[in-house]
Amino acid sequence: MTLAAALVILLGVGATFAARTYLTPPEDKVSTSPINAPVTKGPVPNTPTDVTITVITAGGTGDDVGRAQVAWKMPEGFQEDYHYQVEWVDLPENYSQYRATFEVHGRDSRVLLIPPNLPEVCAHVRTVDPDGQVSPWSDPACLNPG
What is the distance between the alpha carbons of residues 142 and 31, in angstroms, rounded to a whole number? Predict the structure, then answer.
């Protein structure tokens, strides 16, 4: 009896497999797009010009120097969806909290904390387009917070 039950089950499984294999029409291939297809990018954006650094003091007076405004002129060909990156140049390794690259959207200036105890600090700016292309860094503007 056990042998008969096993044969019935085996025939049922085999018939189901055969029906799915031979009687089901093949599936249509799913259309796909190339994932890693190269994307044509536009020209590299232009570099900002006339970078300046102005010290900001509390209330406009006093010797409390801690922040500076880095400003620049918009480069030729700048478009609305572009943005800028600003950073201090050549800071020592132990100044890691000041070594960030700051993103600037919709403005042509950024206020940064001035790294303390350095004889001179410099900042530079570059333009970034939506495709991720970046201009060369601008000529650095320097400040002697001394």
Answer: 56
Mean pLDDT of the chain: 84
Q: Which residues pair with 70 in a beta bridge?
A: 53, 110
Residues 22-44 pLDDT 10s? 777 777 777 776 777 676 777 88
Per-residue tokens: 3: 């042998």
Task: List, in sequence order, every beta strand (DSSP E) within 16-94.
Answer: 49-57, 65-73, 83-89
Which neighbouring-strand residues pair with 1? none
The CA distances from residue 46 to 9, 101, 138, in Å, are 75, 18, 10
**Rounded distance between C-alpha atoms, residue 82 and residue 139, angstroms:** 20
Tell me how crowded residue 119 is: count the other CB atoms within 10 A of its CB: 7
Using DSSP, state whether 94 is helix, strand or coil: helix
Measured CA to CA, the distance from residue 80 to residue 130 in angstroms comes to 10
Residue 57 tokens, joined: 């003091």
Whether residue 145 contacts residue 67, with contact meaning beta carbons closer than 8 Å, is answered with: no
Task: Please answer whether residues 118 and 145 qualify as being in contact, where contact means their C-beta atoms are separated by less than 8 angstroms.
Answer: yes
**What's the Cα-to-Cα distance from 104 to each of 11, 16, 111, 137, rounded to whole Å?**
71, 64, 10, 14
